[in-house]
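Following up on my earlier thread - several people asked me to post the actual chain instead of describing it. Fair enough. Here it is, all 78 residues.
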Amino acid sequence: MAGNAQSRAQLIDAFLAAPTGTVPVTQFTGETREVTLEVRDIEAEIAPGVKVRQWAFGLPGSRPACPAPNCASKSETS
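Reply from S.P.:
Thanks for posting it. Predicted structure:
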């Protein structure tokens, strides 16, 4: 494995450069669509006994879900 091991930075660069398989709606249809999402603050257990606060997203009236095991963001405000 040592001969083929990539550095963490190389792995991140490769991930960021990979295509996501998505196309903006305006490229696909030439139209813009509006979507309403509800955002809720939830508490989720990500491991036994480990709970985190997350934002969950969903269409109005549907059960909100977090799009990844852990949603994180950075705030530029103090």
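The radius of gyration is 18 Å. That should answer part of your original question.
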